[in-house]
Amino acid sequence: MSTVKGKQTSTKKKGLNLLSALRRDRSLYVLALPGILFFLIFKYIPMWGIIIAFQDYSPFRGIQGSEWVGLQHFTALFDNPDFALLFRNTLAISLLNLILFFPFPILISLGLNELRSVAYKRLIQTIIYMPHFLSWVIIAGLTLLLFAKGTGLINELFALWGWPRVDILTNPDSFWIMVTLQAMWKEAGWGTIVFLAAMASVDTQLYEAARMDGAGRLRQIWHITLPAIRSVIIVLLILRLGDIMEVGFEQIFLMYNGAVSEVAEVFDTYVYRTGIEQGDFSYSTAVGLFKSVIGLVLVVVANRVVKRLGQEGVY
Amino acid sequence: MKWSERIGQSLNVVTLGLLAVVMFFPLYYVFVVSFTDPGEYLQKKIVLFPERWSVEAYTYLLSTPAFARSLGNSAFLATVGTACSLAVSSSLAYALSQKQFHFRKILMFLIVLTILFSPGIIPNYLLVRELGLINNIWALILPALANGWTVLLMKNFFDSLPAEISEAASIDGCSAIRTWYTIVLPLSMPALAAFGLFFAVGYWNQFFAALLYLNDSAKWPIQVLLQNMLLNASNIDLVAPGQQVETPPTEMLKMAAIIVAILPVLVVYPFIQKHFAKGALIGSVKG
């Protein structure tokens, strides 16, 4: 059984070889078929469905029968005063994530890595990984039970101490920071996994040598541990930058309420409201497409930068 | 050891302990309140450790048909969905890991593209509608069967298995399907456990797709019911008409519902914990 040597053979021969290879390995192709069908149907047909962003899509006439309107929906979006708001909110939440959330798992990992007691380290890890597995519905529910103005634990405590009740969840001033802290609570522990793995691969002889030279713990962290995880930090940071149009949709959707709509409406929630709730399919597809294209460009640029820095990219 | 180091070390131990407390406390609080005697809760409002324990909130909650039914729906999603997802993803990933697979380059490219670019909510919604899956529980499974990331990571994992295994099997006359099923999958149990956990949690936590596609409340999974209970403050369905039972306080019911909804995760968690750190790292950033 020979493998296909395509380069020196004619195209006709190549075709024949391909056919015989297909026949020979048919069970391999059968194995791949369900997965391929899945990607075709559920990933690529929706991509084709994007063209309704350039139409006045009517569910009765379908994609073939609907009228083409060019870029009308996009200009409508850019002219909409909501657009600036959507952009501001998306960016604000993303940037807060970047500034507050991003360094947090790194700090926790550095702390965990310094722990002497393996059992204590395990215990902490078990606890802080846990929230990652909870749904956003549950996290939003927990937040409400703790912070609601009327019956939340925090406010009950304040009332007990004779302090005034505070309004956190329906206050536009605290919304952004609240969702950032929420995301940190859920994912910061989980985020330590990569960093801890990178730290675990450091040669312990380096620490011993540093100790011999009289370096304290802080110096060892600064000169050995941090450089060891630098590449991981850079890769994740750049990817995070590339993902800046993505804010946790379910999270925002669930924390959304009328009182905070000014600061809580992001692209995804807006698409849901105009598309699913109001049935304006073409316009909302255009909004979604705008967001996805910006996201694609950012991710591709980010990946380029990662590779330019000599690191392994995502693809 | 120097004094400064000792102080630094204790500071570190304490800080991390506090962090764990902050992460753990909400769950502890909800757990404790849900098991408190309703009378005691109403009287005190803040219960850090109950004097009288009670399972009243649970018996009440589980006796409501809507809650039990949604648990059943979620259990179906998590088991059937996970099994289907593992089958579809691992078979494709295994095929892509085989050198003699033509089109693997182009297929890999097409899969990566789906990670980078998503068409958005609406085209997906329209597709599911066109397929006639609205109000059908399979609308939560079929579109979530696989995703680019998982297939890529699985393929990386299969790449790391010695190629001789597949070669030897094929010389012995094993078809690729049989090799995958009888040799490769059993060898990959730790990885499958990790991926399976992620799929199962994904299905169990699935909320948005259910909100989009299921109008009929009888088909709701637990997360949608929870959203209605916790966030919309509606007790619809929970109290059957004409039911003459004394209701535990709403807050307590909510907490009990949260505990029930995270119970499956809590039960599976310790068994699979040793796998998931590895699973999360398979094929990802190399340290």
Tell me about this structure.
The complex is a heterodimer of chains A (315) and B (287). Chain A is mainly α. Chain A has 16 helices and two strands. The radius of gyration of chain A is 26 Å and the shape is globular. The N terminus of chain A is likely disordered. Chain B is built from 13 helices and no strands. Chains A and B meet through helix 1, helix 2, helix 6, helix 7 and helix 8 of A and helix 1, helix 4, helix 5, helix 6 and helix 9 of B.
Any descriptors?
heterodimer; A: about 325 residues; mainly alpha; two-stranded antiparallel sheet; 16 helices; about 70% helix; globular; disordered N terminus; B: about 290 residues
| Class by SSE composition of chain B | mainly alpha
Compressed to H and E, one letter per element, the order of chain A equals HHEHEHHHHHHHHHHHHH
Q: What form of chain B results from the Cα inertia axes?
A: globular
Radius of gyration of chain A, CA atoms, in whole angstroms: 26 Å
Give the C-alpha Rg of chain B. Answer: 24 Å
Give the assembly state of these chains.
heterodimer
Helix content, binned percent of chain A: over 70%
Major sheet of chain B = none
**Average of the residue pLDDT scores of chain B:** 88
| Contiguous uncertain segments of 5+ residues of chain B | 283-287
Distance between the termini of chain B: 30 Å
Topology pattern of chain B, helix = H, strand = E: HHHHHHHHHHHHH
